[in-house]
Specification:
- By secondary structure, the protein is mainly α.
- Helices cover 80% and strands 0% of the residues.
């Protein structure tokens, strides 16, 4: 029974690490593409580091104006931005699975019989 629980915990650890890594890879790939498209849209090359700050300030003012005069359109655009960060869900799920698997594995090491107490389940 203890070996079966250890195998299950190992499988959960592998699944959690895989989800976490996959989410990070997809998120960074998306952010790289978004950064390239924003720099192309704003007309800023990667070497113009000082030009980014004014562009971000103007973009913030534009977002504030859109929120003030067209809240529905602003919220629609904000929802599209949030949807583009869906890999964060993979990262969060992977972190939760890893944390639970790690917590149960530590409980198994503390209790050498390999059985979990009712509070650990």
């Amino acid at each position: 029974m203890a070996a079966r629980q250890a195998d299950l915990q190992s499988l959960k650890s592998i699944a959690g690490a895989s989800l976490f890594a996959l989410g990070l890879v997809i998120l960074f790939a998306n952010l790289d593409g978004v950064g390239d498209s924003l720099s192309n849209a704003a007309g800023i090359s990667a070497h113009e580091g000082l030009g980014i700050l004014p562009a971000l300030g103007l973009a913030g003012l534009h977002a504030l104006q859109a929120y003030a005069f067209n809240p529905a359109g602003f919220l629609s655009g904000f929802l599209q931005i949030l949807v583009s960060f869906w890999p964060l869900v993979l990262i969060l799920v992977g972190a939760v699975v890893l944390r639970r698997a790690r917590g149960r594995r530590l409980a198994m090491y503390r209790n050498p019989t390999g059985s979990l107490t009712a509070g650990d389940q």
